[in-house]
Write a structure and sequence with these properties.
DNA binding, WH_DNA-bd_sf, Arc Repressor Mutant, subunit A, globular, D-Maltodextrin-Binding Protein, domain 2, DNA-binding, alpha/beta, WH-like_DNA-bd_sf, 12 helices, 3 domains
Length: about 325
């Protein structure tokens, strides 16, 4: 088994075609087929089957390709750190929560490009459970997480705390300057994420403590669907302000902060504790933290309270 065979495996899996894989790898098709054959002989099982839509991973292939991706990612990280370079270089994967992507992703890419042009940045979006899993598996280098479960495999750093907001159509009359209690809207049809999503857990804990019973109209883990159902008049929802301020500014939604003391979410920056953090990752993380502190200071991250040190926020 060698690196060429692993790259052939991953590329075929991503393209679904030996021919397309050969084009991307800049080698002839028979060479790709031979690398795959040698790999299958080495592991002792078929990794692909020919399906209606091209090369399809077998069950064994699905398992093996995930390990191959991680192995290649680690080798790429190692190569970028030991090769001579004019500056900091490497591939860095940052995980962002869906509610933070619109505010952070584009600006982070621009900041990294200006400060470290030799760094290739990858942005992965997911909910806390997914992001934490990717960190532990080595598929992400750092991530923003919402109140993650304690884990010895992660080092976490509190970044900010923000209040949750109740969100409805404009005719719901919610206003930023008029906080409401969850009890006041509990009788309305509620659109919430599926359990055990972080916001859902937080809302349910508050309801249990206060003896509140919600009327759940629909459940979805897609934030765009949450807002779409609200726009369609099917209920109200609960989201962090960062997720809906643009919609409120455009008059598409109305929103008010929830005054319940427990309805605060804490966002932390997480890095793996089980492997060395490369210089390139630390450089990107520093830029991300600076960017978030700037957003809080300028009021772009509405209703957020900075939890970093004074040196972080300048």
């Amino acid at each position: 088994m060698d690196i060429k065979q692993l790259r052939a495996l991953v590329t075929i899996a991503e393209t679904g075609s030996v021919t397309k894989a050969a084009t991307l790898l800049h080698i002839v098709q028979p060479a790709v087929s031979r690398q795959l054959r040698l790999l299958e002989e080495d592991v002792g099982t078929a990794l692909f089957s020919r399906g209606r839509y091209g090369m399809e991973l077998t069950e064994s292939g699905e398992i093996f390709v995930e390990y191959a991706r991680r192995a290649l990612a680690e080798l790429d990280r190692a190569r970028s750190e030991v090769q001579p370079a004019a500056g900091v270089a490497g591939v860095v994967t940052i995980g962002l929560l869906p509610s933070t992507c619109d505010l952070l992703a584009s600006e982070l890419v621009a900041r990294v490009a200006r400060a470290y042009p030799a760094i290739r940045l990858r942005i992965s979006m997911g909910y806390t459970g997914h992001l934490q899993n990717w960190l532990e598996l080595g598929e992400a280098d750092a991530a923003l997480l919402y109140d993650p479960k304690p884990s010895p495999t992660l080092q976490v750093r509190p970044i900010l705390e923000e209040r949750l907001w109740v969100v409805g159509r404009p005719d719901a009359g919610f206003k930023a300057e008029s906080p409401v209690e969850l009890r006041q809207v509990a009788g309305e049809p509620m659109i919430l994420p599926n359990a055990p999503h972080g916001i859902r857990s937080l809302v349910e804990q508050t309801c249990a403590s206060a003896g509140i019973e919600l009327s759940i109209a629909a459940e979805t883990n897609a934030m765009s669907v949450q807002k779409g159902l609200v726009l369609g008049g099917l209920g109200i929802t609960i989201l962090p302000s960062i997720a809906i301020m643009d919609d409120v500014a455009r008059g598409l939604l109305s929103a008010a902060p929830l005054s319940d003391a427990d309805l605060l979410r804490k966002i932390v920056l997480a890095l793996p504790n089980t492997r060395r953090v490369p210089v390139a990752v630390r450089c990107v993380v520093d830029l991300l933290v600076d960017q978030i502190s700037d957003a809080v200071r300028r009021g772009q991250w509405t209703a957020a309270r900075w939890l970093g040190s004074d040196t972080d926020i300048g």
